[in-house]
Amino acid sequence: MKDPGDEWPKYLEIEPWMEINLKRVRDLGLDLGGRKRVLDIGCGTGYFLYICQYLGHDVLGMDLDEERGFAEMIDLLGVKRVIWRIEAYQPLPDLGPKFDVITAHMICFNGHKSDKLWKISEWEFFLDDLAEHHLEPGGQVCLELNREYDDSLYTPELKAYFEARGADIHTQRVHFNPLRPAPAAVASAGR
User: Fold this and answer.
1) For helices 47-54 and 70-77, angle between their N-to-C axes, nearest 10 degrees
2) pTM (2 decimals)?
3) Helix (H) / strand (E) containing 170
4) Is the Cβ–Cβ distance between 135 and 92 less than 8 Å?
5) Rounded alpha-carbon distances, angstroms, from residue 144 to 46, 103, 106, 167, 191
6) Residue-wise DSSP of 4-52
């Protein structure tokens, strides 16, 4: 690697990142049971997917190709990845068979720390696209949100929307198991 840049070398500290991702794997029950298809949106260096793959799961990562070093790490770990930018009101590409588990850790695609931070309608489009085109019926979605400049993770309305869709929320972790359709009253009230 010629120049790793300023940000990503922290991910070369493999032990803490493997511990973090092993906990994520266990929290989702991916260390137990049969083989699953797992999609990790914003897969970064691929540590989470590497552990899932090691445990016998069929994995796919999705991320931008902007962070120096991530591609090399993904290749080193032998994890499959597609390059894609998630944008509000735009469906994901065809990724083949549906997934049992879809994750997105340390999310930045939602307009994080910008004046374009997603509201309920953007999240509704995104979650509906996952449910319709990418998630097996009864599958789980786990999102980990980043804090905004004001130290918030989500508005009370967005939290209520996530909960109406079946989310179990613990601080930044929003876990849908399974992802349910939103009740019309909650969805239309938050727009």
Assistant:
1) 10
2) 0.90
3) strand 167-170
4) no
5) 16, 8, 5, 12, 22
6) --SSGGGGG-HHHHHHHHHHHHHHTTTTSSS--EEEEET-TT-HHHHHH
Q: Which residues make beta-bridge pairs with 169?
A: 174
> Tokens representing 67?
């962070």
The DSSP call for residue 151 is S
Question: pLDDT 10s per residue in the chain (191 long)?
Answer: 444 445 556 777 889 999 999 999 999 999 998 999 999 999 999 999 999 999 999 999 999 998 778 899 999 999 999 999 999 999 999 999 999 999 999 999 999 898 899 999 999 999 999 999 999 999 999 999 999 999 989 999 999 999 999 999 999 999 999 999 988 765 555 55
Question: What is the CB neighbour count within 10 angstroms for residue 145?
Answer: 22
DSSP states along 60-113: EEEE-S-STTHHHHHHHHT--EEE----TT-PPPP-SS-EEEEEEEEE-TTTTT
Residue ranges of domains in the chain, CATH in brackets:
8-189 (3.40.50.150)
Residues in the chain: 191
Q: Is 119 exposed, middle or buried (0-12, 13-18, 19+ CB in 10 A)?
A: middle
